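ugh ok fine here u go
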Amino acid sequence: MVFEDIKLVIMADPMNAAYTQRGIPPLFKASPNARIVIVGQAPGRRAEETRTVWNDLSGDRLREWMGVSRQEFYSSDRIAHMPMDFYYPGKGRQGDLPPGRGFAEKWHPRLLKEMPGIETLILVGSHAQRYYLAGSREKSLTATVRNFKNYLPRYLPLVHPSPLNIGWFKRNPWFESEVLPVLREIVRKCLS
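structure:
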């Protein structure tokens, strides 16, 4: 299976040796049948411990936004999970450290090549948006998400669903009324 082969190559890469030596596999999920890819930041501590991406409060909120059950989120071969880094980068002064530099550049193209049916990449947070939208993104994450229609159908930029962003959600009520219905429609279309 091609994705298992890619996983083994990722594990053998010297840049990931510290994780491989500790028995930590790269955390991603890919399928040749995938129609949407969720591109997040990097697995958190709990995701690393449980070997399950989005296995935290942020994941609960993301699934609610998408209108899918936990089972659909993890079992559907139409939803791929491809963080900007497949390993927990560690704790920083203000939350988790950013994804490793060069990681997405090295591994995302290889995985995407094997998922030819991808219709939309859901870009969760600034790291994913910086990489995939590059010069076409707005000056701020809020402006990029607000102008989400400019990036459809290939990309859908979202704010991170972290509980730490509760203030952002309160200041930007348009997100729930304008963006989330489009997200749910994309997800339903891809799952049907």
